[in-house]
Amino acid sequence: VNVALALVALVALVLAGWWPVAAVFTAVAVVVGPVGLSVRGRSSSLNWTRRLRTLASFCAISVLLFVVAFAALRTAAGAGVLDSIAEAFAIAAFGAPLLVDLSLALTTPLERRMLRPYVERAAARLARENPTVVAITGSFGKTSTKGYIAHILSTKYNVVASPASYNNRAGLARTINEHLSEGTDVFVAEMGTYSRGEIAELCSWIPPDIAVITGIGPVHLERFRSEERIAQAKSEILVGARCVVLEVDDERLAELARESERHGKTVWRCSTVDKAADVFATDDSSGDVTVLAKGHELAIGVAQGARPGNVACATAVALELGLGAHEIANRLASLPSVAHRLEPSLAASGVMVLDDTYNSNPAGAEAALRRLQAARAEVQAATAEVKASPAEGRGATPESHGARRTVVVTPGMVELGRLQRNENARFGAQAASIATDLLIVGRTNRKALLEGVSVARSRVSDEVPGGGVEVHTFDNRDQAVEWVRRNLGPGEVVLYENDLPDHYP
After folding, report:
1. Percent composition of the chain: helix, strand, coil (DSSP 3-state, to 5)
2. Are the C-beta atoms of residues 455 and 429 closer than 8 Å to each other?
């Protein structure tokens, strides 16, 4: 439908050059489409920040200048004034995304200039306090690894870590200016990037002593075009560091480890498959993580839900900064969960909720499904225990609610470029093989996820009624949440995997 609307708008726009009334069709198509997106936000109201007001002003000025210039040219060529103005507004409406991009390009130098005093103040404060800087980047696992490092190191050092996902120029400058103080021993900085050169610029005023790359994957692939470019952009964090920590299960990071050694850097190789690595971490079917350092067992039974690769990287940083095995093991046993990143909780209804709504990459989604499997096993064990020893006066048992459900709620993953369709289809197939119900939110990845479900059903034995999974589609997340509240009860599990902002249909 949206493609058809776009074609109507474009054809009418072309015809408006000869038949000005056609511009009305362009205007109507732009107002109606894209189908699936509302003018008002679904999840929250629009926050008119100073930056957004500046951008809106530039957009408005751009539209007015274009309309005046276009109408003047058309009028000079003999067209009617009103017809020329109508056609100009139709072109502006159809080209609104380009106008926004143009306004962003024009305001970017202004934004950088306005931010410069804060960056300079942050750089001066960092140089004055002179903490050890641990910088972290990667396609996934940055925020979790940052939290793990801060948690482990805090047993010995005064640590400041950038909060939430404050991983760009503005966020890191604000973190340093507001939180770094006299006596800070370690500053843990998460660094993100959308293009080459961004991390290098961050490292120019936040020079890392220890640099960590957690992994390389297709996140933001539509911006970078290839995973090789992603790896090159992430590797900028290694240039000035004396020590690097890399998850070498990825051959690209293994090569960076070898290159770093050739440049005389200290290298910690982390792995989830090679026990000979400097730090090795693996999880079992229940989700417990075991850690080996230099071949010796360091910890076992690390907090459930922790991704082994992230744990290995955090452990390597702690070892580099002189923490002993006993100190690290004690802290690994109490690793914090990161908000909205495979965060477990028990709802008042008795439903186990796995909140992974801030995760949007294939590796993380696969890890979430493994955790869902482990959670289902826990529920089944608890159910068996209740059945074996019932107690009076406890209300409804898990059996009283009917068939046990394991549910995945997801809109799929975005910004994966040419891999987006295949990765979502693969995730749909994996989810269908584990869950009893798959709740697909929105239209963005619906077709790909359904394709994956079809593949999974084709592999299921005929003995499994209904093809193994029930699929439900919803226009928005609120409808899916309402379905969960209405249909799930004690002893059942739901995984919320990813959430998309309002500009995705």
Report:
1. 50, 15, 35
2. yes
Give the phi and the psi of residue 130 in degrees, each rounded to 5.
50, 50
CA distance 140 to 290: 21
Range with the poorest average pLDDT among 65-74, 248-257, 271-280: 65-74
Distance of CA 284 to the CA centre of its chain: 25
Tokens of 401: 């609610």
Residues 274-289 as b/e (b if ≥16 CB within 10 A, e otherwise) read eeebbbbbbbeeebbb
| Environment class of 210 (CB within 10 Å of its CB; exposed 0-12, middle 13-18, buried 19+) | buried
What is the C-alpha separation between 83 and 60, in angstroms, rounded?
Answer: 21
How far apart are the C-alpha atoms of 293 and 452, rounded to whole Å?
Answer: 39
249: confidence class by pLDDT, cuts 50, 70, 90: very high
- Answer yes or no: are the C-beta atoms of 187 and 133 closer than 8 Å: yes
Polymer length of the chain: 505
Which H, E and C letters describe 31-72, residue by residue?
HHCCCCCCCCCCCCCCCCCHHHHHHHHHHHHHHHHHHHHHHH
How far is 37 from 30, CA to CA, in rounded Å?
Answer: 12
Please state the three-class secondary structure of 349-408 as a single string: CCCEEEEECCCCCHHHHHHHHHHHHHHHHHHHHHHHHHHHCCCCCCCCCHHHHCCCCEEE
Arithmetic mean of pLDDT, 243-263? 94
**In one letter, which amino acid is 413?**
M
**Cis status of the peptide bond prior to 390, with omega within 30 of 0:** no
The token pair at 24 is 């009305």
pLDDT digits (tens, 9 = 90+) for 284-320: 756 678 888 887 777 666 666 678 899 999 999 999 9
- Cβ atoms 70, 88 nearer than 8 A: yes
Between residues 492 and 502, which one has the greater pLDDT?
A: 492
Instruction: For 144-182, write each residue's pLDDT tens digit.
Output: 999 999 999 999 999 999 998 889 999 999 999 999 999
Q: Which of 268, 111, 129 lies closest to 186 in space, CA to CA? A: 129
Place of tokens 């230099």: 294
